[in-house]
Amino acid sequence: MAGNVKIVIVGCGISGIAAAHRLVKHGFQNVRILEATARSGGRIKTGRLGDIIIEIGANWIHGPCEENPAFCLARQYGLLDPKALTLENQGVDVGGHPQGLPNFFSSSGQKLNAEDVFSAQEMFAELLTECSEFQGQKGEPCASVGDFIRKEAKKRVAEKWKDINPATRSLLLCVISNMLKAECCINGAHSMDEVGLGAYGLYKSLPGLDCTFPGGYEGLTKNLMSELPDGLVTYNHPVQCVHWNDAEKTENSVTVECENGESVVADHVIVTVPLGYLKKHHSTLFHPPLPLHKLHSIQRIGFGTNNKIFVEFDAPWWDPDCELIHLVWEDEDAMVDQSPDLRRSWIRKLFGFTVLKPTERYGHVLCGWIAGHESEYMETLSEQEITREITQLIRRFTGNPTVTPRRIFRSQWFHDPWTCGSYSHLATDCSEQDLDNMMDPLPPRRSNAQPLQVLFAGEATHPCYFSTVHGALLTGWREADRLISHYSSVNSSKLSKSKL
Ligand code: 6YU
Predict the structure, then answer these.
(1) Which atom of ligand 1 is nearest to the CA of 306?
(2) CATH number of the domain at 2-44+213-302+425-499, please?
(3) Prediction pTM value
C-alpha cells in the first residue's frame, strides 16, 4: 500500500530530508520534495572565506550526546573530530550556552580582568536558571525574561555589591548588558524583552560540549541525501499554495500549486517551511486558510534574526587560549539590549566574537554575532560599510589604531526570501499549547474529511528542541512516523475486515 501513497514534502532543509529518508526506508516509493532554492540543507549552509570553511547557518551540534540524533548521525557518517566523540565530551552539561575561555574588552580600549567580570557572569547565569523555573507555575513576576533579569540584577547588585566602588558596580552592570545581547543571539530574538518568562523553561538543552563539523555542517545533509533515490528533490520549485480539504476529491485530496504553474496532486503534504516564511505567507500558502488556533500560534511564536560577521586578520589581537571575545560598552549600565538609532549605533548590538579553532585549520578568523533589528539593518549595508564599522569597533575596544581586518563575510538571513529570519523563540504570550498547535495536522481532528492531508514539520514545531538542527530532524521523523503508523493501522483494519 505504501508504494501507491503520494507524499509531497515542501522544503529540503534537515526536517524535509529527514521525513523523506524515513518514509523511503519504510517502503513509501512515491515521495517527492519540492524545494524553492537551488540547494538542499536550508539553514544548514556551509560556505567559504577564501580557503576556510565557514558556517553561514547552523554552527554547532548543541548537546552532542546519545539522545541527540544529529550527533548520532554525524558520528555514523564519520563527520566529527575524535574529541567530540569522547564520553568525557558527551558528559559535560553547559545548559545550551557557548563555552570557552573569554577575553573581555571595554569601549575605552581596556582588556578587562576575567576574574573581575566573573561575578557578573555568575549572576547572569543564576538569573537565567531562575527564568527557566517559572515554566508550569501560575503567574509570572515580570513581563519577560529581559524585564526579570534587569529588575533582579539591579536589586541584587545593590545588595551584593554595595561595598564596591560605583565605577566597578556600573561596569558589572555593563557586562550584564553584554550578556543580554549574547542571549538575544542564542534565542534568535530582537530583545530579551520579547522572550516569555513563563515559557522560557520549555526549551530543553542536552548534555555534551557543543561541537562543530571540521568539513562543514552540510556533510550531514549531503550524507542523508546520498541515501535517497535520485530525482526525489525538485529544485528551484517554490510552492505557492497548498489546496487542502477539497470536498470534490476522494483520492489525492491535496493539490500543491507551484510558482511555475505546475500542479502536483498528493495524498499527504508535509510542510517544512520556516516559521518566518509562514508568518509572511500563510494567507496565500494555504487554501482554505489555516484554522484560527494554528494561525494565532504562528503569529504568537517569535522568529527573530541572528547573523554572523566573519572577520579575518593577519595576526590575532586576542589571547592564544581565548575562545570567546566580549565587547563591553561602558555607558550601558541601564542594561538595554536594543539600539534606539539603527543607522548610528547598530554595531553596538554585536556582543562579541567566537574564535574559530583550531588556528591551524582556520587561521586568525573570528565570527561576530549580532541579533535583532540591528542585525536586519546590517544586512542592508555594503561589505565596505560593514568592514569600516568593524575596523573602528575593534580599534576602539583594543586601543590599537592599526588593527585591520583582511576580509569579511556576513550572513543575511532576514532578507533570505525563503527563511525571513533565523530561528524561533517563545515570545511573551506563548505557551506549550502554541507548540502543540504548530504541529497539529490538517484537517483538525474531529473532522470527517480525509485525515492527515497536511502535516507540519520544521524546527518551530518541536515542543522542546525548537531552534535547533536536532529538533528539526526529529520533527521530520515525527511526521514520517505519523504517516507510517496511519498506514499500518489502515492495513491492519483492512486485514481484520477481510478475515471476518
Ligand atoms: C543548531 C546551531 N545556529 C545559526 C544561524 C541560523 C540557524 N540554527 P530549513 O529552513 O532548514 O528548511 C526549510 C526549507 O524550506 C528551506 O530549504 C527553504 O528554502 C524551503 N522553502 C521555504 N519556502 C518554500 C516554498 N514556498 N516552497 C518550497 N520550499 C520552500 N541550530 O542546532 N545549532 O549552532 C544553530 C544557527 C545563523 C540561521 C541556526 C542552529 C538553527 C538550525 O539551522 C535550524 O533550526 C534548522 O536547520 C532548521 O531546519 P528546518 O528543516 O526546520 O528548516 C535557553 C534557551 C534558548 C533557546 N535557544 C537555544 C538554542 C540556540 C539555537 N541555536 C542557534 C545557534 C546557531 C548559532
Answers:
(1) 37
(2) 3.50.50.60
(3) 0.96
